[in-house]
Amino acid sequence: MPGNEENTPRINHEITSSQVLLVDENGVKVGITSTNEAIRMAQEQSLDLVEVAPLAQPPVCRIMDYGKYRYQLQKKEKDARKKQKVQELKEIKMRPKIDDHDFDFKTKAVRTFLEKGHRVKVSVFFRGREMSFLDRGEEVLNRVMAECEDVGKSESKPVMEGRYMRLLLTPITGSTGTKASKPKGEE
Prior knowledge:
Blueprint: E1 19-23, E2 29-34, H1 35-44, E3 48-53, E4 60-64, H2 66-83, E5 89-94, H3 100-115, E6 119-125, H4 134-147, E7 152-154, E8 159-161, E9 164-171
Parallel strand pairs: 1-4, 5-6
Antiparallel strand pairs: 1-2, 3-4, 6-9, 7-9, 8-9
């Protein structure tokens, strides 16, 4: 039964109040009437009496086609879910001695993710003696920040986590972030 769930409105004989503020199918306020009279009026028009504001005194009820109403609600929820942007966390891994071509290729991927609205975690992995040159990893992350400053921003400075130095970039809302805005020769 629809009225058993908390988030669905009560309809027809599920309405417990003795009097209701009635609104007809055209949205015109009829006034305060007894619940039985309101149910009878709805049944005469082959419609349902639906409690739309149960907390009001007296509760507000409307005469409508409940099946059609539920269908429209489901359709609105589906459209809302379709338009909802799901933001994922993408990760790009680099090394402190990364080659320029590899750096450009991975930075391009970071830009693409940011333009699509995803958050990006850029990680620099240190092996062996590289741990004594943490400043090189920080330089790599600062270069990534500089390359992507028009499409993303960093919440904080690069952070060390074990053998990884990490940086989290979030997309700038409302940016178009095209590659044409920054000439290729600038570095």
